[in-house]
Amino acid sequence: MNLRGIVAVSGRPGLFKLIGQNKAGYVLEGLDAQKLKIVANLSTTKLASLEDITIYGENQEIKLIDVLTKIAGNKNVPDAKADSNALKTFFEEVAPDYDKEKVYTSDMKKIVGWYNLLKDLPLFTETAPSLEEETGSVAEDKVDLKPKTTTKAKPTNAKAPTAKSAPAKKASMTSKKGV
């Protein structure tokens, strides 16, 4: 499964694809039907990559990728708006070791909602690029979003400013004696 570049944005529903970054923030494209493009401010917006999200477990944390893979293999996926008992029994199947005190029903709803957004995309059949592939040909795929600055050439007939030096002061060795 390849979730590289798919992020959740704090304060916004749904999932987004990270297109690039510029001075103003991150350029994101919504994965829902609207295909909304936004620029998320760097200083106020928190992005969470789905690759890095984990779920609290009893013994160890469970990767979201593993849970989504198990959900994809399950034929009885409940609706994200299903009652809490249905979601809890479903999560017992796909993540049997999840921490029942720390993982809330709202978290389960969010994960099932994310799965419903992702299931129609080819992400489940793709594999994540390895580190060697990432350093090799990824540079060609990146979009340069930095504004291009141009410098204006100075006219040739313009005088360059010169530093004027103050005249050197002569040290006075004479003293005035009162007469």
CATH domain topology: Arc Repressor Mutant, subunit A
At the first level of CATH, the class is Mainly Alpha
Structural domain tally: 1
Low-confidence spans: pLDDT under 50, at least 5 residues? 130-158, 169-176
- Major beta-sheet overview: 5 strands, antiparallel
Oligomer: single chain
- Supply Rg: 30 Å
The proportion of residues in beta strands is 15-25%
Provide mean pLDDT, rounded: 74
Fraction of residues in helices?
A: 25-40%
DSSP, total strands: 7
Order of helices and strands: EEEEEEEHHHH
Write the layout of secondary structure elements.
Layout: E1 6-9, E2 16-21, E3 25-30, E4 37-41, E5 47-49, E6 54-55, E7 62-63, H1 64-73, H2 84-94, H3 105-118, H4 131-141
Write a brief structural summary.
By secondary structure, the protein is of the alpha+beta class.
What features would you describe in this structure?
By secondary structure, the chain is of the alpha+beta class. Strand 1 (6-9) and strand 2 (16-21) form a beta hairpin. It has one domain (6-141): Orthogonal Bundle (Arc Repressor Mutant, subunit A). The chain has a five-stranded antiparallel sheet with strand order 4-3-2-1-5, with no helix packed on it. A two-stranded antiparallel sheet has the order 6-7. The chain is globular. 26% of the residues lie in helices and 16% in strands.
